[in-house]
Amino acid sequence: MDNMNVMTDEQLRKLIDGLADQMVKRIYGVGEEQSQTSFYADRDEDHALGELARLMTLSALYEDREEYEKCAVIKKHIDKLNRIIDKI
């Protein structure tokens, strides 16, 4: 076996950390490479409703693609947001 192509656990952790960091920067529009600006609602209720709409859209997309495991994860987040909105 060619040992040149095997990653150590430490190398794998560094790769995962780097990928996660870049994903967070893209998702939240952080960094120079992003030209778009993110908008944050000034009221908690507005922000929660916007997030709920986003998650419901993702849930519908995943359901259409028959990616039911992702739907289950999204549903947990939707349920949490619904509880938050009910308290507001």
Low-confidence stretches: none
Largest sheet: none
Order of helices and strands: HHH
How far the N terminus sits from the C terminus, by CA atoms, comes to: 60 Å
Given the helix and strand composition, which structural class is it? mainly alpha
Strands, count: 0
Q: Average pLDDT, to the nearest integer?
A: 81
Q: How much strand?
A: under 5%
Rg over CA atoms, rounded to whole Å, is: 18 Å
Number of helices: 3
- Overall geometric form: extended
Helical residues, percent: 55-70%
Short note summarizing the structure:
The protein has 88 residues and is mainly alpha-helical.
What does this structure look like?
The chain has 88 residues and is an all-alpha fold. It has a domain at 45-88. The chain is built from 3 helices and no strands. It is extended, with a radius of gyration of 18 Å. The N and C termini lie far apart (60 Å).
List the helices and strands and how they pair.
Elements: H1 9-27, H2 44-64, H3 68-87
Question: Which descriptors would you attach to this protein?
Answer:
88 residues, mainly alpha, 68% helix, 0% strand
